[in-house]
Structure prediction request, 196 residues.
Amino acid sequence: MHCPFCDAEKESLKVIDSRTCEGGRAIRRRRECANCSKRFTTYERIEETLKLTVVKRDGRRVPWDRKKILAGLERACYKRTVPEAELARIVDETEEEAFKVHDREVTTTFIGEIVAEKLRRLDQVAYVRFASVHKQFKTLEELVDEAKAVIDAKRFEDPTQGRLFLEPPSPPGNGDSPTQGKRRGKPKPIEDDTHD
Prediction:
């Protein structure tokens, strides 16, 4: 390998950052040339001799294509404020899970369930759009039922989940402890006042 800027030999190149990408099937490396101090990126990929085959609902078998998953996500997120990076992350995680769980073949149902769950957490409207295609709703009632299920599930989720570092901590005032109001040790018994 040579520096693409000054053509220095490999001995002059230093790796300054490495991370996995493409669902864990490639390594992205940032390199710096000691000769000209320029930086550039290289990718190491496994030569793919074993690919997953996707089994369609009608029994046809097609090669795995991450672009199809991304296209489906883009259709579901049309005119929604979902960053492209989030869609790419969903594709990467779906691909990683599919390659981890299945050796040679994976069903479209398996892929769709993974994508749907990740999309549900990201954008509820996009999820309902995606689910309407993936689950092949036949009636408007099925679509409405799915939307209601998403709304009901949201009500039971803890609203503070996932917000640990998003909100600044409240400064303690008047000598109060930051854990004021939180009990330690044995929980207080619940008093039942319905029998008065």
